[in-house]
Design goal:
The protein is mainly alpha-helical. It is about 60% helix and about 5% strand. The chain is built from 14 helices and 2 strands; from the N terminus they run αααααααααββααααα. The mean pLDDT is about 90.
């Protein structure tokens, strides 16, 4: 397993964290293609929830995207469906850890004023009229949650398209190696870096901003990097993986020290939404490209441990995405000859490498 110093050195040399092998290329591109298909569904549902299920205290039909046909309800009941619970887990992780510019905006006077205007309007709803004065923090928290939901939907919309474009680029020969994968992802993230993140709701004949354009929130700094922090690195302790007993002291009191994210998860099929994200693995299994599916069938227990194999491939792909994000957010160009800029790059790379070294770096070797 590479040390933190070795990982930092790779980053500063412009090398990839994941070894460049034909098998890794097949795994990463194939699993990201499957993930792109799943993220398309996740993104659409999150945006539906934020726009059409806004401030509903009991959104029991939030996973249906407005389609309440008997056929869809039946498929939901027999679990022949996308597992939107994993998307919800990621949204809650982002909301709870609260890093980045979006969380800072939630504490601003402008956001508080927008919440107050929305709540005044929504108090026409009898239930909310009762809840608002009894629990004054309840509705603002629901609005924060809805804003995080919509922002994550916007983020995943971009990532879905990027991952599907990557698969197309690999098929037509533009991407032939792991370094080319990381570069493709980096260019996509950099191109999307400044995309605005905003969100408003229509209530009756009135429109209310929740994340207005003047908040200045953008894709990379305010959603993508906080997503990596909350989902790839920190995550949340998941039932069945650690003890929630306070005396056991298996859960840190400091959220910044959490290491339950996707890059740390042992690939065990718990079939839960959290770590490891087995519900996501199930969604990806249903959308695997055939070359990758056949590759899995030829190894170890064939179909018997396919979700474990997918989880391993997914972690490799997420190291590539993280690699691309780090490369795209370095303070200065790697080729810089300025000692101060080189020192800033080294400090940035070492900070990331220290955290990554505690993850499943055993998967990075060829």
């Amino acid at each position: 397993m590479p040390t933190a110093a070795e990982l930092a050195d790779r980053l500063l040399r412009g090398q990839t964290l994941l070894a460049d092998t034909p098998d890794h290329l097949l795994e990463v591109v194939g699993v990201l293609e499957s993930y792109g298909i799943v993220l398309d569904a996740y993104s659409r549902n999150l945006i539906f929830q934020a726009e059409r299920q806004f401030l509903k205290p009991f959104p029991v039909f939030r996973f249906f995207d407005g389609d309440l046909s008997p056929a869809k309800i039946w498929r939901h009941l027999i679990h022949d469906r996308i597992n939107f619970e994993y998307a919800e887990y990621c949204q809650k992780a982002m909301l709870w850890h609260g890093t980045g510019g979006m969380d800072a905006y939630f504490d601003s006077e402008a956001f508080i004023a927008n919440c107050a205007a929305i709540i005044r309007h929504k108090r026409r709803d009898p239930l909310l009229a009762v809840l608002a004065p009894l629990f004054p923090a309840f509705l603002p928290e629901l609005i924060r949650s809805a804003a995080t939901t919509h922002a994550l939907g916007q983020f995943w919309r971009v990532m879905s398209d990027l991952f599907l474009d990557l698969a197309e680029a690999e098929r037509d020969g533009r991407v032939r190696s792991i370094p080319a994968v990381v570069e493709f992802l980096k260019q996509g993230l950099v191109a999307a870096a400044g995309l605005p993140i905003h969100y408003g709701v229509n209530l009756g004949d009135s429109h209310f901003w929740v994340l207005p354009p003047e908040a200045g929130l953008t894709f990379l700094a305010d959603v993508a990097v906080p997503y990596v922090e909350a989902v790839f690195l920190r995550g949340m302790p998941f039932l069945g993986t650690v003890s929630f007993n306070a005396q056991a002291q298996q859960i840190s009191h400091d959220q910044a020290q959490f290491a339950y994210g996707a890059l740390y998860a042992d690939p065990l099929p718990t079939m839960g939404a959290g770590i490891p994200p087995s519900l996501l693995m199930q969604d990806m299994y249903r959308n695997l490209p055939e070359p990758l599916h056949q590759w899995y069938l030829e190894r170890t227990r064939g179909e018997g441990d396919v979700r474990v194999k997918i989880c391993g491939s997914f972690q490799k792909s997420m190291f590539c995405v993280t690699n691309a994000a780090i490369a795209g957010t370095l303070p200065h160009p790697l080729a810089s000859g300025d000692p101060a800029e080189q020192a800033a790059n080294r400090a940035y790379a070492e900070a990331w490498a220290t955290r990554l070294a505690a993850g499943r770096t055993d998967c990075l070797a060829g």
